[in-house]
Amino acid sequence: MATKTPKALAANLVASAGPEDAFLPRLTAVATDMEALLDRLLGSEAVDGEVARPPRLMQAMRYASLGGGKRLRPFLVVETAALFNVRRERALMVGAALECVHCYSLAHDDLPAMDNDALRRGQPTAHRKFDDATAILAGDGLLTYAFDILSRAETHPSAAVRIALVALLARAAGLGGMVGGQMLDLAAEGRFAEGPLALDETEVTTLQAMKTGALLRFACLAGAVLGEASADARRALDEYGSALGRAFQIADDLLDVEGDVAMVGKSTGKDAAAGKATLVGILGTANAKAHLASLVTQAETALAPFGRDAAVLKAAAHFVAERRA
Ligand code: GRG
To answer: Considering the entire predicted model, what is its pTM?
Structure first.
């Protein structure tokens, strides 16, 4: 399978483009900009305060973060920030920080101690390409670098805005967010001495809001923080981001059941085999699809205060629900 360039990804995603014509070109534009920005940020020259950048670690960090991915999270930062006329370069910096966290989570999730996956974005996973220790350190390096990026004046001239972004991302990514959700996920699978943790629909929804939803919600809120938006606007984007995150996870679970490995770019059929707690497993495929449709409506409704300006974000909600990769 070839590396997924922004253009190749767009070709794969055409089937799920949604009703808004502008959506795919705008997603592709962010993916192209993100590639260039991450390439620059992950250069071989040490920056002020660093001692040196070990080449093997740099290569692994670049491998885990460049040359693939839909860049949906940076797209959401850029497009929510655009509602408040935030300069695109600033939103891209926040998108790059968020993508570093996302790519770290994928590299760590693929490790033998977690999901033990061989394939990610149509390529060997980071630990298969390098080795376990290097993949762990590459993930650690990406996570730490995210906060370096957020701290830079290039991200926003206001230190208060930068601190707000740091706190929001730390909470989305950590104990009460993605890492906490991953812990619950492994516990539900029965990875620990206590045996499998049985979860009902509400508990699975909470787990997913943490594991996957928290970073997507951050992406939508970050635009409002960058734009120093009103409390009402923040609330609206928070609701949009939460519904989008839930929709994303159900769509991901459906892809695991119904997806084609060549299109999805990672192994499929693993959730049921591993005994993972999913809403598709609890509700059944048909009910999960109905729930997914209602979450798309919720996401669209939350955007009402922004009128036509939010058309591309509405299209994003459809894309998330209907994507094939
Ligand atoms: C290891 C701390 C830690 C957390 C892992 C995100 C996560 C938690 C695990 C990934 C497993 C997984 C497949 C989750 C489902 C949702 C998800 C994050 C899918 C991948 O995101 P996409 O589709 O990927 O946006 P691309 O490749 O487009 O960036």
So the answer is: 0.92
